[in-house]
């Protein structure tokens, strides 16, 4: 609500005049094609929403939640993807490398491995089968693995709510927006700060699509496999939903880290116990040393790239000098903090690399969050006073050879 209020407030200023440009002076020449402010905002918001909504592949949610609870769960993931998209990149990378490890270790397809990582397989008692400990357990492990291998890849993809076509449409939208920005730069037309921020999101989401391309999208229901592991629960004639509700009543309240699962997951200190829940956390995947190292490197690299794209607007025209310096400082923070964390992670400060990385993450995350929020607000503030060329549209005919 605060962001919406600020947006409406600054866009309602009709008489602003900063650096010699007013709202009235932004009208392009009569002999050029033009665009309006609504077109800029609509194109940017559509690109951000489409790319983020399609790129985020959530784990399988609890089946006893209402549609409203599931919607808010998905919306919360989108908020995190907007504030810190490189965290989603790190999560996707960690899950991809873990899935590859599971595929090689247990002799299953990458689709089976992804479904395993995202909590898609559950026991007859409703507990997720999502850890190596469960598959390596001497008594039930072989039975679970045998049941998983019998599931066809087509049956898993049948539960996916997305396909290559839907992902391809969002990808084309992002590539088209990127092409427009490059064409404006080539034709010496101003690119608004909102378009620069949107371009950063489009580029980052390409990495998320690539990492999660083989992961089933927005699966709502798990697949029960194997024997019943809880003989003390009601008989197996009960439905899966009833068994899950019984298990939830049995385990009672979760501990502190289970209440803040996404924090513990990103910090690498969350220990998930599948027998104490009916679904995997939203930001959870199996963690091993190799997957953690590779995912952190990719996450930091994408974070640096995300900040560097914002730095591309370093010399852009801002409504005021204060907003210009705020943009520059925040862009540098977003670009430099991932580089700093990568160096700390590689150097192995403070006991060991993982612990050092977590301590550094806690120390700089407030600075990063503030910088990201400002980089969301500032582009909308800049719309109140744009240079005249910002409303001049691209001359696509200049790229058509004249015979």
From TrEMBL:
Residues 1-20 form the signal peptide. The chain crosses the membrane at residues 36-54, 75-93, 196-214, 296-313, 325-345, 357-382. Keywords: Membrane, Signal, Transmembrane, Transmembrane helix. This is Wax synthase domain-containing protein. It comes from Mycena venus.
């Amino acid at each position: 609500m605060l962001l919406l209020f600020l947006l409406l407030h600054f866009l309602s200023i009709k008489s602003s005049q900063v650096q010699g440009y007013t709202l009235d002076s932004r009208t392009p020449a009569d002999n050029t094609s033009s665009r309006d402010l609504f077109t800029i905002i609509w194109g940017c918001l559509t690109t951000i929403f489409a790319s983020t909504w399609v790129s985020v592949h959530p784990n399988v949610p609890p089946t006893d939640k209402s549609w409203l609870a599931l919607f808010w769960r998905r919306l919360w993931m989108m908020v995190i993807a907007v504030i810190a998209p490189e965290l989603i990149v790190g999560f996707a990378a960690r899950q991809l490398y873990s899935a590859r490890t599971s595929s090689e270790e247990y002799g299953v397809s990458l689709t089976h491995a992804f479904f395993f990582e995202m909590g898609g397989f559950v026991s007859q008692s409703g507990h997720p089968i999502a850890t190596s400990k469960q598959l390596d357990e001497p008594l039930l492990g072989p039975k679970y693995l045998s049941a998983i291998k019998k599931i066809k890849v087509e049956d898993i993809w049948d539960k996916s709510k997305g396909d290559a076509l839907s992902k391809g449409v969002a990808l084309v939208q992002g590539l088209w927006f990127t092409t427009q920005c490059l064409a404006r730069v080539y034709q010496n037309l101003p690119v608004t700060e909102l378009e620069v921020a949107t371009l950063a999101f489009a580029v980052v989401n390409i990495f998320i699509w690539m990492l999660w391309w083989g992961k089933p999208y927005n699966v709502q229901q798990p697949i029960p496999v194997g024997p019943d592991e809880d003989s003390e629960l009601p008989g197996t004639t009960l439905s899966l939903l009833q068994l899950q509700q019984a298990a939830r009543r049995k385990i009672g309240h979760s501990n502190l880290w289970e209440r803040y699962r996404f924090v513990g997951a990103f910090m690498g200190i969350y220990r998930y116990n599948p027998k104490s829940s009916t679904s995997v956390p939203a930001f959870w995947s199996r963690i091993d040393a190799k997957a953690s190292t590779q995912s952190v490197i990719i996450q930091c690299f994408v974070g640096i790239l995300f900040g560097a794209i914002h730095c591309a607007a370093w010399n852009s025209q801002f409504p005021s000098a204060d907003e210009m310096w705020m943009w520059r400082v925040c862009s540098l923070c977003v670009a430099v903090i991932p580089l700093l964390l990568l160096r700390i992670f590689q150097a192995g400060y403070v006991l060991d690399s993982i612990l050092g990385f977590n301590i550094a993450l806690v120390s700089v995350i407030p600075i990063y969050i503030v910088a990201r929020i400002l980089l969301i607000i500032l582009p909308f503030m800049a719309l109140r006073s744009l240079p005249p060329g910002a409303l001049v549209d691209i001359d696509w005919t200049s790229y058509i050879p004249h015979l």
